[in-house]
């Protein structure tokens, strides 16, 4: 038996999310379909976490085990790519220690959320960005971002349906990024910003709920200090709405050096 | 009768090009379908030029005439966008002089061609970039670009099927652009470069044939001075192969001030 770690990129637009589901096209399903062709057996693939329909990955990580591959791990990665659609790619494939497990061993993740502030819809960005109107208080968003950093109870930012043992998480970074203007005449598609959040773990919809909360602040409906009130409430209804999926990218998954895997 | 000038962006991936064709989904066809719904009549739309299947536009220009629109031009643009798919957008709609004609009046265009040099395929760029292997002589490409500038006979760079009265054109700019690296770990998707070409007019497939020629030079198969030999040959077979459509973007169309239109 060999254990592999793969790093996978995908455009989530046309998939029903990561997780295998009957009669749905999913990322996990496509990866397992490629592995059946290459190994002759069903090989369950474990992702570092699920992503929802429409959510993208710059570098998702997954692990699996099979005795039926004799060539190098790099060759397995290339062979998988032959059997994957253009919207899924294995970026890296490496042998991993027998006990490596993509969910259990993950110690941190970074997500990126992309927004377009007002302007006309873009034919190139609509799959990758949330277009919101009326967001003009950018300094307020930047200030509010700082209020998410630290070890806190994120109960107010947990989506329904996937409760966890504890809702306490440590956010290491919550960065506000003004992106370069697009190639278009200035202002046509509005300003482009991103929020990047790094944490030791994320609750269900946590990034999208944080972004929805930041957008309320950016619209001037709430001040940055409102974030502190939302934390205290420990109530999902206290926070802003859930931002839509297409702006969200899983950017990185981190493992400890002791796992013997790196990317 | 009112004459309108529209500026249109589109992702050409899923269209059979600009021009209306029976039983095919085209950009012109979708624009005319929107205008039928809004004006109650068939309104022929004239583009500044056709683009092939898979070719994109940051700002294509088109003109049309209709007596059946009473509100402002800006409102017509917004109304058209309601009836267009997410991959086509009217960026600007303006009243134009009665005699304005998007093909006849155009005095110049700028195209952009995007490449990825080697590396793994990207799930986000495959629709918008030509991935080529073995291109390492970037200074040679840059030097060769300069040899296209000026008033020359581009017969060797004219694709078959759409012969023009004269093959002499004036290229005002042929720019080699090193793009910013992507967000991914360095080198994974290779370097990203673009070629931007501005001319008073383009022959069929001219940009794609110039880019295919530049790629031969970038691979070290030919030196930059080869460009001069290709010009002298006045023979399509003397130049490099035609670059694929997905890297090509129509970036801008220029009209003289005397047309009374601007964007």
Automatic annotation (TrEMBL), chains A, B:
Which positions bind substrate? Answer: 111
- EC class name: isomerase
Which NCBIfam families is this protein grouped with? hisT_truA (TIGR00071)
Q: Which family does it belong to?
A: Belongs to the tRNA pseudouridine synthase TruA family.
Q: Which reaction is the catalytic activity of this chain?
A: uridine(38/39/40) in tRNA = pseudouridine(38/39/40) in tRNA
Q: Where is the Pseudouridine synthase I TruA alpha/beta domain?
A: 9-101, 144-256
Q: What gene is this protein a product of?
A: truA
Q: What is its EC number?
A: 5.4.99.12
Q: What protein is this chain from?
A: tRNA pseudouridine synthase A
Biological processes per GO annotation? tRNA pseudouridine synthesis
GO molecular function annotation: RNA binding; tRNA pseudouridine(38-40) synthase activity
Entry annotation: catalytic residues: 52
Role noted for this protein: Formation of pseudouridine at positions 38, 39 and 40 in the anticodon stem and loop of transfer RNAs.
Q: Which HAMAP family match?
A: TruA
Assembly and oligomerization: Homodimer.
């Amino acid at each position: 038996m060999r254990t592999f770690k793969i790093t996978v990129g995908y455009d989530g637009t046309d998939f029903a999310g990561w997780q295998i589901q009957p009669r749905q096209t999913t990322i996990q399903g496509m990866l397992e379909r490629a592995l059946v062709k290459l190994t002759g057996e069903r090989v369950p693939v474990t992702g570092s976490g699920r992503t929802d329909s429409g959510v993208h990955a710059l570098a998702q990580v997954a692990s699996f085990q099979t005795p039926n591959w004799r060539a190098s791990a790099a060759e397995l990665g290339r062979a998988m790519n032959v059997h994957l659609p253009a919207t899924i790619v294995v970026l890296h494939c490496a042998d991993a220690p027998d006990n490596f497990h993509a969910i259990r061993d993950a110690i941190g993740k970074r997500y990126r959320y992309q927004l377009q502030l007002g302007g006309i819809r873009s034919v190139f960005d609509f799959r990758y960005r949330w277009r919101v109107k009326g967001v003009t208080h950018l300094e307020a968003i930047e200030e509010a971002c700082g209020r998410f950093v630290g070890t806190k109870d994120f109960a107010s930012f947990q989506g329904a349906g996937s409760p966890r043992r504890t809702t306490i998480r440590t956010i290491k970074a919550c960065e506000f990024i003004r992106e370069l203007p697009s190639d278009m005449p200035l202002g046509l598609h509005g300003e482009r910003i991103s929020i990047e959040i790094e944490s030791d773990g994320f609750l269900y919809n946590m990034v999208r709920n944080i972004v929805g909360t930041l957008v309320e602040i950016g619209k001037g409906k709430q001040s940055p200090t409102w974030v502190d009130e939302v934390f205290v409430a420990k109530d999902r209804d206290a926070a802003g709405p859930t931002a839509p999926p297409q702006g969200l990218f899983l950017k990185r998954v981190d493992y400890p050096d002791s796992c013997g895997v790196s990317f």
